[in-house]
Design brief:
Oligomer: single chain
CATH superfamily of the largest domain: Aminohydrolase, N-terminal nucleophile (Ntn) domain
Radius of gyration: 25 Å
Helix content: 25-40%
Largest sheet: 8 strands, antiparallel
Distance between the termini: 24 Å
Number of domains: 3
Number of helices: 18
Strand content: 15-25%
């Protein structure tokens, strides 16, 4: 039998009514609000009188609801989970919740239990019978084992988690103590929402955002329970820690809903003017607190994964222009690149939309062990990365539900520009022209959004049948090209590569043939003539040229098959405007090819595993 360690690209939801009202519809809604995290199966557990009822299946929540009739059930307390397997079977049995032998304890779990095999074998020798292939099931049996020894249920959970090696966010329901939802956290996000009529427990804020903005962010080592009239939390790592301070989530609940848009991705592309405006104001206020750290550092490593790495690379290019010693590092490569040289005189600037990205958190832990100061740039104020950082800046993007980064990428770039402005202010260096341009970005994007959308739709009609593409740029245009390429491959499933334009003649140009799409990011900067020369090389070999270029440009326009004109502004800020047409192009190609851009296959919004 193949036994599997669970992935953690999953969702946890739980709810208890303060006034004994039915919570099943809201529990389903909470889980629906977490669909963006990716999943292949789902499940629920609730109390029906004194009986613990579990229902679970592979497939979507909507299909499960239709087939199971769960909305016909009533209960004032329940837990739920979406699971996404990366190894082993996708099956009804492997879906969460998982029960103990007696069927009295239901556990949902995000994380990986590294020693689950030895625990399973130990429990099987004691007579426990396992039904699934997952690591999660050992937790329900461990709790059963200690509870059967006469311990209180909370104490049984404590004793069980002492045996676990790995990461977990646990939510537990039992008929032994049926007016409580129990929880524990270690290395995986978990939070409590405090509403007027209910108390919620979830793996992310959007699960309960439509009912309450008041939240408690659990810390590693926190364990406890919620009941109708009590929230109890203690910390097994540091018993002196008190209750977490409640926070007021600064997000509009409507931001976590699609509204009139067909997909979250399109909605979030259109939200970028407001997101950038909020971010400018938010970061301008917060960046002053990190200036001295940056100016006193010997070196700054900017660490990210995926789109967050590309925005980090943008920052490296930008900051180098002003004499700041920085290096953008892919988070998963940080240990090999910098793990033996980073020290207490350095800063690691960790960038992550979710603040939960495993590779980024691991890079931070490595840097912390070597004494480096950690500054993070995140969008999720309740994230692990924010909690383990020395200082943190939270952007103003609002919740991003679509798996592919859109508004968080543009707000990361805006954040780095604002941070640079504050640094240069402290040095007495003028950066007002760039900031004036940045302040114009929201208005310009609003005015141009419809035009960008129409142009992208037109180009997508031609692109939809293609199987390959190149995205090329130089200088500040190169990270934008990387991001455009990533968007096309991850949601439209077209093989796409991005290179610094000067590298194309060192190998990639060998692939060019008639009709091959080449997307050129042409800025009005010192690299302009070199970009034109590269277009001529591609064009002479039959490439179809799609150019994003400054308004009014004649030379590149005449060489291109399709163009998207970008309004002029300062060259250090203008690339933000290039991002939006590339996002819209990827979106329309995906839709025209029949794919759901919100749920790209094999991807999740928050990648919290190695």
């Amino acid at each position: 039998m193949q036994v599997e360690a669970e992935t953690v690209m999953c969702g946890i939801a739980a709810i208890i009514s303060k006034n004994f009202r039915n919570v099943i519809p809201k529990l389903v809604r909470m889980l629906k609000n977490l669909e963006y995290r990716g999943y292949d199966s789902c499940g629920f557990a609730f109390l029906d009188g004194t009986s613990l009822v579990v229902a679970k299946a592979k497939g979507t929540i909507d299909n499960f609801v239709k087939k199971s009739g769960i909305l016909k059930q009533t209960s004032d307390i329940g837990i739920a989970h979406t699971r996404w397997a990366t190894h082993g079977a996708v099956s009804d049995t492997n879906a969460h919740p998982h029960l103990d032998c007696s069927g009295d304890i239901a556990v949902v779990h995000n994380g990986i239990i590294d020693n689950f095999m030895e625990l399973r074998e130990e429990l099987e020798r004691k007579g426990h019978i396992f039904r699934s292939e997952t690591d999660t099931e050992v937790i329900s049996h461990l709790i059963e084992h200690y509870y059967s020894q006469g311990k209180s249920f909370l104490e049984a959970i404590k004793m069980a988690i002492r045996k676990l090696r790995g990461t977990y966010a646990l939510v537990i329901l039992t008929r032994h103590d049926g007016d409580k939802i129990f929880f524990a956290r270690n290395g995986q996000p978990l939070m409590i929402g405090v509403g007027n009529s209910e108390i919620y427990v979830a793996s992310d804020i959007p699960a309960f955002l439509e009912w309450t903005k008041k939240a408690l962010i659990l810390r590693d080592g926190d364990i406890g329970f919620v009941s109708r009239n009590e929230i109890y939390i203690e910390n097994v790592i540091n018993p002196d820690l008190g209750m977490p301070e409640p926070i007021e989530v600064p997000w509009d609940p409507d931001q976590a809903q699609k509204g009139e848009f067909p997909f979250f991705m399109l909605k979030e592309i259109y939200e970028q003017p407001d997101a950038i405006q909020r971010t400018i104001m938010s970061v301008l206020h917060k960046a002053e607190g990190i200036v001295d750290d940056i100016l006193n550092a010997d070196f700054i490593y900017i660490v990210g994964a995926g789109s967050s790495y590309y925005s980090s690379l943008y920052a490296q290019y930008l900051y180098a222009r002003w004499g700041l010693r920085t290096m953008a590092v892919i988070a998963s490569e940080f240990e090999d690149i910098a793990g033996h040289v980073v020290d207490r005189n350095d800063i690691v600037f960790a960038v992550s939309q979710s603040g939960e990205t495993f590779d980024t958190i691991q890079a931070v832990k490595i840097a912390k062990k070597r004494g480096a100061k950690i500054i993070s740039l995140v969008n999720n104020m309740g994230s692990t990365l924010r909690m383990i950082s020395d200082k943190s800046i939270v952007m103003g993007a609002g919740p991003e539900i679509g798996v592919a980064a859109t508004k968080t990428f543009s707000t990361q770039i805006a954040s780095f520009i604002v941070i640079l402005k504050v640094i240069l202010d402290a040095q007495g260096v003028d950066y007002e022209e760039q900031m004036k341009s940045l302040s114009m970005v929201p208005r310009v994007l609003s005015e141009k959004m419809k035009h960008f959308d129409e142009k992208a739709m037109l180009i997508a009609e031609w692109m939809k049948t293609k199987t390959d593409a190149f995205f090329l740029g130089r200088g500040l245009g190169y990270p934008i090209a990387l991001e455009g390429s990533l968007k096309l491959k991850e949601i439209a499933y077209i093989h796409s590569e991005s290179y610094p334009a000067g590298e194309s003649k060192h190998g990639p140009i060998a692939l060019i043939e008639k009709g091959f799409p080449v997307i050129e990011i042409i800025l009005n900067d010192k690299n302009y003539d070199a970009m034109i020369a590269g277009i001529q090389e591609m064009k002479s070999r039959g490439a179809m040229i799609i150019s994003l270029l400054p308004e009014g440009d004649q030379k590149a326009s005449e060489l291109s098959d399709h163009i998207v004109e970008i309004p002029h502004m300062h060259e250090e800020v203008m690339p933000i405007l290039y991002v939006v047409p590339l996002q819209l192009l990827a979106y329309h190609v995906a839709v025209k090819r029949g794919y759901d851009p919100d749920k790209p296959r094999n991807l999740a919004k928050s990648v919290t595993v190695k």
